[in-house]
């Protein structure tokens, strides 16, 4: 089976399993796991932040960071389709007690959008406390933020006294795509969350990075949210291995995503969005995503449906039938060629 549903489906490599099996561990709730400490220090340094905290998932990383940066009743500004708003079970409202304001049309937005959306703290308004940026942006097809635009947004929100949070679940992909360091892409952000279990291929784990006093606050929230783990060094070792050995190879995934898109370029019944990283979005001209998913699976290729946010298509279709295919560590060029062939056949027959 060629599984393109997500880059989360990767399984740890033999070398990663070995690193995990050999990990030195302690009780991380007591702050005594040397491997977790090493991972936190390594990721903090990579992102150019003072401190970092290992958490079980990307959802917890975002939600703990956003809760730490806000008070109940505050507002968080986000782009269209933001993961922390669309795919985290309503946690921003349920746990952090925040309302959100969605700005822009393509997942990114401008400094002018931020200034227009900002509401100051007064007796009547929700105070706009945080701008949350997603880079790369998952729901919009793994797109990478323009760096000049990013710098303008972070400067504008700082000028208004806001906190800048980066959902950098796939910052590794953005760095490779732009030939920049993660540190450069995290510059201007007060807090950053990153995933180890997406393209990097670790079985679980995310990291929040930021100022030391902020990370201390996150530490207490992590325990409150049930994310305190004991001999977590077993997992952290997988994460460390991923950070050291799997970042540069993401270029291969990006090339394979391009090959997949090119393989579908002449196909009937599809419109392919040019991939910027490891995610390929394929719009069906006929039929439904459910049909395409079922028929592709019968031929050994697993793909997923992606709901299209009407805000990104003003005046058009709320019912675009969009498929997401994600390339990753466990998919090579031959698998990608086969997948292109299967998807083309399926779409043509819909
Ligand atoms: C996957 C993802 C997350 C959350 O990660 P989980 O580990 O699945 O909770 C957060 N943000 C983005 C952009 C993601 O793609």
Keywords:
single chain; 350 residues; Aspartate Aminotransferase, domain 2; Aspartate Aminotransferase, domain 1; 2 domains; 7-stranded mixed sheet; 4-stranded antiparallel sheet; 13 strands; 17% strand; binds pyridoxal-5'-phosphate
Helix-strand layout with pairing:
Layout: E1 2-3, H1 14-21, H2 34-47, E2 51-55, H3 58-68, E3 75-79, H4 83-86, H5 91-94, E4 99-103, H6 111-117, E5 128-134, H7 147-159, E6 163-168, H8 171-178, H9 182-186, E7 191-195, E8 206-210, H10 212-224, H11 233-245, H12 250-264, E9 270-272, E10 279-284, H13 289-298, E11 301-302, E12 304-306, E13 321-326, H14 333-348
Parallel strand pairs: 1-11, 3-4, 3-5, 5-6, 6-7
Antiparallel strand pairs: 2-8, 7-8, 9-10, 10-13, 12-13
Bound molecules: pyridoxal-5'-phosphate (PLP).
Describe this structure in words.
- By secondary structure, the protein is of the alpha/beta class.
- The chain has two domains: 14-245, Aspartate Aminotransferase, domain 2 (3-Layer(aba) Sandwich), CATH 3.40.640; 249-349, Aspartate Aminotransferase, domain 1 (Alpha-Beta Complex).
- It is built from 14 helices and 13 strands.
- The radius of gyration is 20 Å and the shape is globular.
- The chain starts with a strand and ends with a helix.
- The model has no long low-confidence stretch (mean pLDDT 96).
- It binds pyridoxal-5'-phosphate.
- Pyridoxal-5'-phosphate is lined by residues 57-59, 62, 83, 134, 138, 167, 169, 195, 197, 206.
